[in-house]
Structures are given as structure tokens and as C-alpha cells.
């Protein structure tokens, strides 16, 4: 049994590179200022053809997380106004998040 069978692996380096290149072209399109996501649909289609589905899912999640991190660094983590006005939501977890946001972002 191949140990790397469960990992995200491809047959050869060239195929992996083609996948990463198509992902990078698609992401570059999404990063263009003022561009609508609809303009990148062809690049998205090529990205999905070049990469296995589980890679696409992984890369999409990675991009969403990177965008989330960027928003936190540029805007900061803001607590929704409704959270503090609802006693039922005042759980230890939300209190911890509130303290964390005050320590890190104030």
C-alpha cells in the first residue's frame, strides 16, 4: 500500500504544477481591483479541470481563510452589536472571544 495515497498527491510534478498555475491565474483574476467574479468564470473552469475536486475544495477554503485573515488585519475583529444585548448568547465562549478581541485589537 502506498503511504501517500491518502495525501493530496498527483502522478507527477508537471501535473501538480499545471494545477497550481491554473489556481494562481484564477486567484490573480479575483484579486484584480474592480473586477466582477463573473469575469473569472473561464479561469475557474480551467482551474477545476486542472485540479482534482478535493484540491479545489482545499484551495477554496484556504483562500477564504486568507481573505478572513486579511480583513482581521486591516479592519479588526468586531463583535456584532446584537451579541452583547442578548443575555442568552453570553456564554463562556463568547466572553472569551470578547476578551480576546479587546486584548488583541484595542
Automatic annotation (TrEMBL):
**What keywords would UniProt list here?**
Disulfide bond, Mitochondrion
Q: Which Gene3D superfamilies match?
A: Cytochrome c oxidase, subunit VIb
Query: What is the protein named?
Result: Cytochrome c oxidase assembly factor 6 homolog
Instruction: Tell me the compartments it is located in.
Output: Mitochondrion
Q: Which InterPro entries match?
A: COA6, COX6B-like, CX6/COA6-like_sf
Pfam families in UniProt: COX6B (PF02297)
| Native species | Scylla paramamosain (Mud crab)
Disulfide bond as a keyword? yes
Q: Which GO terms describe its biological process?
A: mitochondrial ATP synthesis coupled electron transport; respiratory chain complex IV assembly
SUPFAM superfamilies linked: Cytochrome c oxidase subunit h
Does Cytoplasm count among this protein's keywords? no
**Any GO CC annotation of this UniProt entry:** mitochondrion
Amino acid at each position: 500500500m502506498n503511504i501517500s495515497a491518502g495525501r493530496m498527491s498527483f502522478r507527477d510534478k508537471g501535473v501538480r504544477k499545471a494545477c497550481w498555475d491554473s489556481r494562481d491565474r484564477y486567484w490573480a483574476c479575483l484579486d484584480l481591483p474592480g473586477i466582477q467574479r463573473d469575469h473569472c468564470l473561464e479561469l475557474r473552469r480551467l482551474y477545476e479541470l486542472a485540479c482534482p475536486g478535493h484540491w479545489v475544495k482545499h484551495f477554496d477554503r484556504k483562500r477564504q481563510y486568507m481573505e478572513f485573515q486579511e480583513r482581521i488585519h486591516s479592519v479588526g475583529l468586531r463583535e456584532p452589536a446584537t451579541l452583547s444585548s442578548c443575555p442568552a448568547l453570553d456564554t463562556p465562549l463568547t466572553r472569551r472571544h470578547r476578551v480576546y478581541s479587546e486584548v488583541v485589537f484595542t
